[in-house]
Sequence to fold (117 residues):
Amino acid sequence: VQLQASGGGLVQPGGSLRLSCTASGFTLETYAIGWFRQAPGKEREFLAGIIWSSGSTYYADSLKGRFTISADNAKNTVWLQMNSLKSEETGAYHCAAAVVGGPYNYWGQGTQVTVSS
Fold:
């Protein structure tokens, strides 16, 4: 099971980024994919998730509609579109996989997002 996150970078406050998470080595039919953020000095925070088989999505309340998670079944890829980014959202963004109903126990390397002017 491998997950590869990419798409991070430097963006100004108010800007947008789209992250991708590509899965390999397993089929995603029975899994959910989630995005998490690890900010410096803070605990890892759940952002958004998607259940592969149904396409159902769920988000942290704090995002207030600024982030959108989606999936491309053909490419085994999950996207996280992030808009109106804030400086406090700087951190390492990780994707993870969980068997639906279970804990996220497959993690990929993170991609760094820096929100700064």
